Amino acid sequence: MLESAPGGPAAPVPLAIIAAVARNGVIGDGRGLPWHLPSDLKHFRAITMGKPVLMGRKTLDTIGRALPGRETIVITRNRGYEPPSAGSRGGHIHIAFCCEAALDLAQARAKALGAGEIILAGGASLYESLIARAGRMHLTLVDLAPEGNVRFPAVNWAEWVETGRLHPPPSGGDEAPFVFAEFVRRRSSL
Ligand SMILES: NC(=O)c1ccc[n+]([C@@H]2O[C@H](COP(=O)([O-])OP(=O)(O)OC[C@H]3O[C@@H](n4cnc5c(N)ncnc54)[C@H](OP(=O)(O)O)[C@@H]3O)[C@@H](O)[C@H]2O)c1
């Protein structure tokens, strides 16, 4: 059983979105990421390391393996789903058959791991379903407008405040400029 803090139950571990989003809202083309940004992949690794990472089955298909050092919770409706093997670099894949089960499992794993947040890593269908539950967004704003039929959902920016923006120096191999921007949900004034 999870320990409760004196005076009340343990606070839930917050859910944070991580996404790389182009100027036109595109995040993917159904096969993967429509750009080559090694610096953003390093950023993704740094933000997600040691945390439970939720993702849709199609996103895991594009990655093709477990993320080393992280517990991935893949969401699928397919009861016969067989995830890719972890591979030699470790990592673990859990399966959940609905968003609520995935969030419950992520809470338990975050507490067991001592992780400060649960990461929602896409794709579009999961961002759409769970953005209302997220308290933070780690967004990479990519200065491209690629073709692609997978888009980040509409965001009500009045609900969010930007808390930081980093302009990484140009790095060899990155195909376009981008910034790392952090947003947190405004506290309700009610
Ligand atoms: N730029 C970025 O930061 C970023 C991040 C992540 C992904 N992407 C891109 O986004 C694309 C994939 O996104 P997507 O929206 O097409 O797919 P997705 O969200 O990754 O996966 C969709 C699948 O998740 C499962 N699913 C979704 N909602 C569910 C629910 N409520 N209950 C149970 N299962 C559920 C279903 O799997 P089953 O069909 O198995 O039932 C569904 O087909 C790829 O191109 C990927 O590269 C981009």
How are the elements arranged and paired?
Elements: E1 15-22, E2 26-28, H1 38-48, E3 52-56, H2 57-63, E4 71-75, E5 92-96, H3 99-113, E6 118-120, H4 124-130, E7 136-142, E8 150-151, E9 160-166, E10 178-185
Parallel strand pairs: 1-6, 1-7, 3-4, 3-6, 4-5
Antiparallel strand pairs: 2-8, 7-10, 9-10
The site of NADP nicotinamide-adenine-dinucleotide phosphate (NAP) has 30 residues, from strand 1, strand 2, strand 3, helix 2 and helix 4.
Per DSSP, the total helix count is 4
The chain-level mean pLDDT equals: 93
Please identify the top-level CATH class. Answer: Alpha Beta
Low-confidence stretches: 1-5
Rg computed from alpha carbons, rounded to a whole number of angstroms: 17 Å
CATH architecture call: 3-Layer(aba) Sandwich
Strand order of the largest sheet: 5-4-3-6-1-7-10-9
Going by CATH, the homologous superfamily would be Dihydrofolate Reductase, subunit A
Cα distance, first to last residue? 33 Å
Number of domains: 1
Q: Major sheet: size, sense and barrel closure? A: 8 strands, mixed
Order of helices and strands: EEHEHEEHEHEEEE
Strand content: 25-35%
CATH topology: Dihydrofolate Reductase, subunit A
The count of β-strands is: 10
List the bound ligands. NADP nicotinamide-adenine-dinucleotide phosphate
In one word, what is the shape? globular
Can you give the helix content as a percent range? 10-25%
Structural classification: alpha/beta
